[in-house]
Amino acid sequence: MKQSEVNQGHLEGFAEFQPSPPLSALGPWKAIAILVLSLWIGGSLVLDLVVMPSLYWAGMMADPGFMDAGAVLFGTFNRVELLLAGTTLAGLLAASYLQEFSPRLQHWTVVLGGVLLAVVLVDTYGLTPHMVSLGATLNWPTLASTVPEGMNQLHGAYFALEMVKLLTGALVLGLCVRDRRSPFSTVR
Questions:
Q1: pLDDT over 90 at 81, yes or no
Q2: Count of CA atoms in the C-beta half-sphere (13 A) of 154
Q3: What is d(CA 67, CA 47) in angstroms, rounded to the nearest whole number?
Q4: What is the rounded (10 degree) CA torsion for 177, 180, 183, 188?
Q5: More confident: 83 or 186
Q6: Confidence band (pLDDT; 50, 70, 90) for 158?
Q7: Helix/strand/coil (H, E, C) string of the chain?
């Protein structure tokens, strides 16, 4: 057996291998949803895993100005999240309408995108204003020793919704990336 026949035998298995198309071949709306969702999840992880723990360990929670800074930080980030959630949901709706998703995923991606928007709406207009109003009434010198039960409950609810948001966002992102249906390969 010649060397070329041996090499050709090894390459025959690769002839069946079909690489998945690049993200640019996914369709414009699905690509927009993937890009926005990636930025959103990344920003949330930086805020949750880097910024907030750094502020906590630096002792910023005992500073009387922390409530004002936290209100501005979370108020701004929540508004940005509203924009990102709306853009993600619009991208998922358009991609589903244009059949950029396989039929079995069209419904689920839109439902999960709606869940993401609902979580951000609850955070923005429900939890954050309650935390800010409760924080405005606190006596800061005594806060370092005891945190009111109501504030702990609100932080717990916010953290739970943050986990729902991150897990749902990761699920939608995974579904978008794994579903490599190209809108240009089907006849409409």
A1: yes
A2: 18
A3: 16
A4: -120
A5: 83
A6: very high
A7: CCHHHHHHHHHHHHHCCCCCCCHHHCCHHHHHHHHHHHHHHHHHHHHHHHHHHHHHHCCHHHCCCHHHHHHHHHHHHHHHHHHHHHHHHHHHHHHHHCCCCCHHHHHHHHHHHHHHHHHHHHHHHHHHHHHHHHHHCCCHHHHCCCCCHHHHHHHHHHHHHHHHHHHHHHHHHHHHHHCCCCCCCCCC
pLDDT of residue 65: 73
Q: How far apart, in whole angstroms, are the C-alpha atoms of residue 73 and residue 94?
A: 31
CB contact set of 92 (below 8 Å; sequence gap of 6+): 29, 33, 109, 110, 112, 113, 172
Residue for token digits 């750094």?
A: 54
Among 79, 80, 86, 94, CA closest to 113: 86
CA 148 to chain centre: 30
Give the type of residue at 180.
R
Does 84 or 70 have the greater pLDDT score?
84
Q: How confident is the model at residue 103, as a pLDDT?
A: 86
**Tokens 């800010």 appear where?**
132
Residue 86: the pLDDT is 97
Q: For 138-160, give one letter per residue: b (16+ CB within 10 A) or e.
A: eeeeebeeeeeeeeeebeebbee
